[in-house]
Amino acid sequence: MTSVSLSRRFALLATLASSLWLAACGGGGGGGNGSANIRAINLTTDLPSADLYIGDGKTFGAVATDTMASSITVDSNTYTVNVKSAGDSASLFTGSYSLSKDQNYTAVIWGRKSSLRVSTLGESEDAANVATGDTRIRAFNATLDSGTVDIYVTQTDDDLNDLAPTQASLTSGSLAGFRTLSAKAYRIRVTGAGDPSDVRLDLDNVTLSEKTFYTLVITPSGTGGVLLNGTLIAQGGAKTTANNTKARVRVVASVANGGVVSAKAGTTNLVTSWRSPKAPQSAGDYIQVTAGTLPLTVQVNGTVLATPGTTTLLAGSDYTLLVYGPAASPQTALFSDDNRVPSIASRAKVRLVNGMSGTSLLSALVSSATTGTGDVASGNVSNDIVVPAAGSVKIDVSSSDAFDPIFTLGSTTSTQNLLVAQGVYTIFVIDGTTGPVGRVSRDR
């Protein structure tokens, strides 16, 4: 059976988070009415070791990141569940869950330390219901930042543009229903919803065994907020974690007098013959490269610069490579971009990059915010500021060398309705042919 027919065969219906959150609402049974089995896995982004309490006692201690703790038996009942940093007394998460008689569960600890989640995935499916030669797989989107994703389970060489997703529109915190597939090796790709070219995770040669139920847990990779890791959990069996091996880099060309910029990361072309001024407009300007220690090669007007030279790009991270300064002595700066969305749903996140030559300090003020970015020197980036999202905002960028803003973006320009909730933005200020040029990029 081809992957095209597989993709069209299965309904594209996600089971929302209510199907996996076993919140206390009765139905768990009281103590003495049987038992349940539960194991735990730590898939958090920044909690290297976790203690999980079910009821009053520490049930799982010091569960390391990407580690599965062995199953234990507990009374079927409704419990208060707490997660703490290993050895710490302060609770990072508290919730109430029901564990039902004769049922098996995997407790997934996920999210960031500041906003942890626990989801209990049921693992009591009957293999007798799976035909010989078949397997079943479902997916859980255990991310706070990825947004809605599509999942393709295909043959290695299949073009995603020719296929419907095996699982479409899986929102953050949602668990999909099982899909039935032929038991064999597959390539699994996770993309942004509705965009097959936006590949966030690419796993090849994933073998799905006969009469086995699998859950693919999707988690964030690094601080970029876009690329993903995958953990495949076999019901009652082992787990396999596949961490992303990619990073993303984008380029800003801000060399005076229309300097022409080319750049490579390792063997990957980032930009070719970009005439300054040129700055990113959207997340689509990021290029995926193999993470690790590799050379960044930059040319300005055909001359290779001595910097940035060899650098280390972390898997799952996003970077901005700024090329700026006078044409006779251009410089480079490499920034790490935190493109994770704000934790408050009604907020947007903004930062300022000063790509101008000279000693002027720049600052940006968003009309919906109470504070600005602060002063940013040439070749630097501000800290992120989190501001209320607004249907129409005004952004003033000021220079330490000028009384009035050097330019304004806002409701009187084409950038009306600039900041949307959960959006991540970068304001680029770069050298133009007749003065500073400003551009706002929506990075998420």
Q: What percentage of the residues does DSSP assign to strands (E)?
A: over 45%
Strand order of the largest sheet: 14-10-17-18-19
Number of domains: 3
The helix count comes to 1
Total beta strands: 36
Tertiary shape: globular
- Assembly classification: single chain
Low-confidence stretches: 1-31
Structural class of the helix and strand makeup?
mainly beta
If you compute it from the alpha carbons, what radius of gyration comes out, rounded to the nearest whole angstrom?
25 Å
N-to-C span: 37 Å
Helix share, percent: under 10%
What kind of sheet is the major sheet? 5 strands, mixed
Overall pLDDT confidence: 89
Write the layout of secondary structure elements.
Elements: H1 3-9, E1 14-15, E2 35-44, E3 49-54, E4 57-64, E5 68-75, E6 77-85, E7 91-99, E8 104-112, E9 115-122, E10 134-141, E11 149-154, E12 167-170, E13 175-176, E14 179-182, E15 185-192, E16 199-207, E17 213-220, E18 228-234, E19 239-242, E20 246-255, E21 260-265, E22 268-275, E23 287-290, E24 292-300, E25 303-304, E26 309-313, E27 318-325, E28 331-337, E29 347-355, E30 362-366, E31 380-381, E32 385-388, E33 395-399, E34 407-409, E35 424-431, E36 436-442
Parallel strand pairs: 2-8, 10-17, 20-27, 29-35
Antiparallel strand pairs: 1-13, 2-5, 3-4, 3-6, 6-7, 8-9, 10-14, 11-12, 11-15, 15-16, 17-18, 18-19, 20-23, 21-22, 21-24, 24-25, 24-26, 27-28, 29-31, 29-32, 30-33, 33-34, 35-36
How is this structure best described in words?
By secondary structure, the chain is an all-beta fold. It contains 1 helix and 36 strands. It has one helix at 3-9; strands spanning 14-15, 35-44, 49-54, 57-64, 68-75, 77-85, 91-99, 104-112, 115-122, 134-141, 149-154, 167-170, 175-176, 179-182, 185-192, 199-207, 213-220, 228-234, 239-242, 246-255, 260-265, 268-275, 287-290, 292-300, 303-304, 309-313, 318-325, 331-337, 347-355, 362-366, 380-381, 385-388, 395-399, 407-409, 424-431, 436-442. A hairpin with a 7-residue loop joins strand 33 and strand 34. The chain is globular, with a radius of gyration of 25 Å.
